[in-house]
Design brief:
Blueprint: H1 3-19, H2 25-41, H3 47-66
């Protein structure tokens, strides 16, 4: 899956997290940095980068449901 799908996954997670009062600035900044890297290097995310994004979103959702 490409960088656009990565951005969609990142952005799609934000509304629920924000509505739940979860701090997402770090997630957004890191995601933006990754997207810039993909563009600069003209490549798609690696499986490890997808795993990292999914783990960060899962941790935020866990924080949301534990709050």
């Amino acid at each position: 899956m490409g960088a656009l799908a990565f951005a969609v996954e990142l952005l799609g997670s934000l509304p629920g997290l924000i509505a739940g009062g979860i701090e997402v600035v770090g997630l957004i900044e890191k995601g933006n940095g990754k997207l810039k890297t993909f563009a600069d290097e003209k490549r798609d995310p690696t499986p490890a980068e997808w795993d990292e994004l999914n783990a960060e979103i899962a941790a935020k959702r866990k924080e949301l449901h534990g709050a």
